[in-house]
Design brief:
Elements lengths: L13 H14 L54 E4 L3 E5 L4 E12 L2 E11 L4 E5 L1 E2 L5 E2 L3 E4 L2 E3 L3 E5 L5 E10 L2 E10 L5 E9 L9 E11 L3 E4 L2 E5 L2 E7 L2 E4 L7 E3 L2 E4 L5 E10 L7 E8 L4 E11 L3 E14 L8 E14 L7 E10 L3 H4 L3 E2 L1 H5 L2 E12 L5 E12 L4 E16 L17 E15 L6 H5 L2 E16 L3 E23 L4 E23 L2 E6 L6 E17 L6 E8 L2 E8 L14 E16 L10 E16 L10 E9 L4 E10 L1 E3 L5 E5 L9 E14 L11 H5 L12 E2 L28 E12 L6 E14 L4 E10 L4 E2 L3 E8 L2 E8 L6 E8 L8 E6 L2
């Protein structure tokens, strides 16, 4: 609040002042230098009605021994130079040993700064007084501002003794961290201890008219450390409440301090009464911390959470969350009694790009029990529940600045399906790549032509894969089924121009695959079955292929007329024809004799079947591929009549066609034609994507594709087997896209960043707004609410059509929408809902209400129906130092 009371050097040479006063006194009797008759300010000794008249209480006044002591008077304690200035006048009174500064007065002495309407310096008693002054309307203005170091006090008046370092302050106002403090009278004993009378503490912005405060009469205050009070009463809207304490302790340090975290009482119904989110916070240092939180439920369930954040400037930052819950359902002895243990581990680490440009380490981990977000008692996160995948990645990469340059990365990945509980991990993945080498091109010469563009690379990919479930995660069963392999590839390629407008690319790719496990297949006469056994040991196979392609870009413009609204349409086509050849690698195939229905049959297989990088093919591949990409733009008349040039708009960002033809296939040589496209509408706010698959072959009566064109079977040229369309639309009253993420923790848990599936509700900390804050905007007109109500909307539509076997079925057709708006400057409401037209039902629905109560926040979150039905109410102080002053109630789902 007021920590050290400060001044700055005051440049006044006392010797010159006293010497001048002596000469003037001798030369002119009964006259004093710089005396201004009409502006003389008298300071009564015991009067205090007006703060511009400052009294001297006995606690600051010391007995003057010079009146009875024959010893020479002691030198003044004011030994440093004093700097001062004032707008109206500076008056030196040699008789009373005072210097008076009036109107915008400033005084600087040592580490003290003092500005005020009036300042009186008594250099005989080593004291300074400061107070307000009245303006022409009779209103008090120019309140004192007293600074010492980093501490600032803004009282009505102040009195300070340079010798004893004591001070008296009337109606002081000061900030200490998140607290604002005002006291009727403050007594400064020394640099580290203050005593306050009639004090109020609050985190409200306006200390003069706060919406709430804590009132107390007796306070001991240690700046930057603590405040200890007597009887303390909470006052809301100037109405005293029954909430009172016989004494109170407020921490005031600006540094992190270890301490208890008070739990919240709750009724969970299924698990009984509960104390949630209680624990201890450890301030371990400037770079990292740790919070240990726990829950306890009366039916025996419990939970633990460990949360830690760390950061080092210009190096790295991150946080770790480990959550564990031991849940008990029903009572022991009942038929539905069960136990479950669920956990979740999250780790996020990012490295500053400037820390090391040649190496980088990052981590994004979200793994644990598949049912954690469905069953957790400590948070409601529907987006995470509806998302079926948890994923993690930890990677380290390094660049070796050699010639050629070498890049290396080491990665661990994790992917988990929360429905099937299947887990796939790579631990680790090693990737090494050597930069392109141009053996036939001079070092600094341009690379033109077939030979100069010939280049080769080397790539290495090595993986250790695990496939398991929740039950065997990181158990011995998981490691028994590990798959290890390594793939080496050397692509040799070139590109060149043909006939000026055609670009040709050609490449030969060599691959070598290493496995540590292969298979052996044979016929077992005892069981009359083919059996497959695993063979441990190193084995490898090698393949190669060739591919080439030729493409160009064609531009076309259709002019519709200068007088038309649409003046012209521009069409850009990029056709590409490719050819690929892969030989047969039958040398890697073995045979075995199998007895099928009483006759011997020779079966063929490869020992590399089931390998992570596939197996060598036994059939040749000799195919042509065709693709065509299109872009459509239009020039239209600009609505702005002052602009002479037409405006360009995008009609279709892309429209792509792709198919292939296998020359040596026995049947079904043409692959289905894939059509895809996308565009942006409504000033790029709506993103539309669509696609379809067209099969040229017909179906037989059983629904199987046959080697006959559909048109020859009495149908159309193509048979549409599937189609899909997605539409995403985001808009707001601001007109631009909101960059702030509304659901950061929900996205980190595996859900969405937007609020289509509602917002994340974490019971451990509900002080933050669920909505995008607009507090940074200044509303210059304070009288009324803005005529344009702030709002935002996110809309998503999805349509899927299936017709693979003549079912002609709309398999997916749903619309989801999320909306938020401000009914008033302090009231915010939001809703997330949707409708599934196939299932004919409303999708997940959430209603959000929030009231900004200045230094408090209130919200109500309601999911009215469904498996995730839930409601929760919260009201509490926003400031972290008083985060335990809250009330919340919720009905668990």
């Amino acid at each position: 609040m007021f920590t050290k009371i400060v001044f700055k050097p005051l440049r006044t040479n006392l010797f010159n002042i006293v010497l001048s006063a002596i000469f003037l006194t001798i030369g002119i009797s009964k006259s004093y230098s710089q005396e201004i008759g009409n502006k003389t300010l008298t300071i009564p000794a015991n009067k205090q009605a007006d703060s511009t008249h400052i009294s001297i209480p006995s606690l600051l006044t010391e007995k003057d021994s010079t009146k009875t002591d024959s010893v020479k008077k002691k030198k003044s304690v004011i030994e440093s130079k004093i700097k001062r200035k004032a707008v109206d006048y500076e008056k030196i009174d040699q008789e009373k040993k005072r210097i008076t500064l009036y109107n915008k007065a400033e005084l600087y002495y040592q580490d003290i700064e003092l500005t005020s309407g009036i300042i009186v310096l008594d250099y005989e008693k080593d004291e300074v007084y400061a107070g307000r002054i009245k303006d022409s309307t009779g209103k008090y203005t120019q309140l004192p501002v007293f600074k010492q170091g980093a501490n600032v006090v803004e009282p009505d008046s102040i009195r300070f003794n340079f010798k004893t370092k004591k001070a008296l302050i009337w109606n002081s106002r000061t900030d200490q961290g998140e607290f604002k403090v005002k006291a009727e009278i403050s007594k400064r004993e020394n640099d580290s201890v203050y005593f306050l009378k009639g004090a109020r503490f609050t985190t409200a912005k306006d200390i003069e008219d706060p919406e709430y405060y804590f009132k107390t009469n007796k306070v001991k205050f240690v700046p930057g450390k603590k405040v200890v009070t007597g009887m303390t009463n909470m006052v809301i809207a100037n109405v005293p409440t029954p909430l009172a304490l016989p004494f109170a302790f407020f921490p005031m340090t600006t540094e992190s301090v270890s301490g208890l975290i008070i739990p919240t009482f709750n009724d969970t119904r299924a698990q009984g009464y509960a104390l949630q989110n209680g624990g201890y916070y450890f301030a371990l240092g400037d770079m990292y911390d740790l919070a240990i939180l726990g829950d306890y439920y009366t039916n025996g369930s419990y939970a633990m959470r460990f949360e830690s954040s760390y950061a080092k400037r210009y190096k790295f930052r991150g946080n770790v969350n480990v959550r564990f819950e031991n849940q008990i359902f029903e009572e022991r002895g009942f038929p539905n009694y069960s136990k479950s243990r669920i956990y979740n581990i999250q780790w996020s680490h990012s490295q500053d790009g400037k820390a090391n440009p040649n190496s980088r380490f990052s981590a994004s981990v979200n793994l644990g029990s598949s049912k954690y977000f469905q069953q957790s008692l400590n948070q409601v996160n529907v987006g995470s529940q509806l998302n079926n995948t948890l994923s993690s990645s930890i990677s380290y990469s390094k660049t070796f600045n050699s010639v050629p340059q070498v890049n290396m990365s080491l990665t661990a990945t994790h992917s988990q399906n929360t429905q099937s509980q299947e887990i796939n991990m790579t631990l680790p993945t090693l990737q090494v790549s050597v930069d392109r080498i141009f053996p036939f091109a001079p070092k600094d010469a341009p690379k033109k032509g077939f030979f100069k563009n010939i280049n080769l690379q080397y790539n290495l990919l090595g993986e250790n894969r695990f496939k398991t479930t929740d039950e065997f995660f990181f158990k011995s069963e998981m490691f028994k089924e590990a798959m290890t392999g390594m793939k080496h590839s050397i692509p040799l390629s070139t590109n060149f121009k043909v006939m000026k407008y055609f670009s040709v690319s050609s490449s030969v790719n060599y691959e070598e695959i290493w496995y540590l496990k292969t298979i052996k297949r044979e016929y077992d006469a005892n069981s009359d079955k083919d059996i497959t056994s695993t063979v441990n040991g190193f084995d490898a196979f090698r393949t190669y292929s060739y591919s080439t392609g030729i493409g160009t870009t064609v531009y076309g413009t259709f002019n519709l007329g200068e007088n038309k609204k649409i003046k012209s349409i521009r069409h850009v086509m990029k056709p590409n024809l490719s050819y690929s050849y892969t030989p047969s690698f039958e040398k890697y195939y073995d045979t075995y004799a199998s007895d099928a229905s009483g006759r011997m049959e020779i079966k063929e297989y490869t020992r590399f079947e089931g390998g992570m990088y596939g197996a060598p093919g036994i059939s040749k591949s000799n195919s042509f591929g065709f693709s065509l990409s299109n872009t459509f733009e239009a020039k239209v008349t600009d609505k702005d009549s002052t602009k002479t040039e037409p405006k360009k708009i995008m009609l279709l960002n892309n429209l792509n066609f792709q198919t292939s033809y296998n020359v040596i296939a026995d049947s079904l040589r043409w692959s289905p034609l894939r059509v895809s496209g996308g565009t942006l509408l409504f000033k790029d706010k709506m993103n539309v994507n669509f696609g379809m698959t067209l099969n040229p072959y017909a179906l037989d009566n059983s629904g199987k594709t046959i080697n006959m064109f559909n048109i020859d079977n009495g149908g159309s040229l193509f048979r549409m087997t599937s189609a899909n369309m997605t539409l995403n639309y985001s808009l707001s009253s601001k007109g631009g896209e909101d960059e702030k993420k509304k659901n950061k923790q929900g996205a980190r848990n595996g859900g969405r960043e937007d609020d289509l599936f509602g917002t994340n509700v974490d019971f451990s900390d509900r002080r933050e707004s669920q909505f995008t804050d607009d507090d940074d905007e200044e509303d210059n007109f304070k009288g009324f609410f803005k005529s344009v109500i702030p709002w935002d909307m996110t809309l998503a539509y999805q349509l899927t059509y299936s017709n693979d076997r003549r079912e002609k079925k709309i398999s997916g057709n749903s619309l989801m929408v999320s909306m938020n708006t401000d009914l008033s400057p302090k009231w915010k409401i939001g809703a997330s809902t949707g409708y599934d037209f196939v299932q004919k039902g409303v999708t997940f629905t959430q209603l959000r209400f929030e009231r900004d109560l200045l230094s408090w926040r209130m919200d109500f979150n309601w999911s009215p129906f469904g498996n995730n039905s839930f409601w929760g109410f919260f009201i509490g102080i926003k400031a972290g130092v008083l985060s335990d002053i809250k009330w919340e109630k919720n009905k668990p789902r």
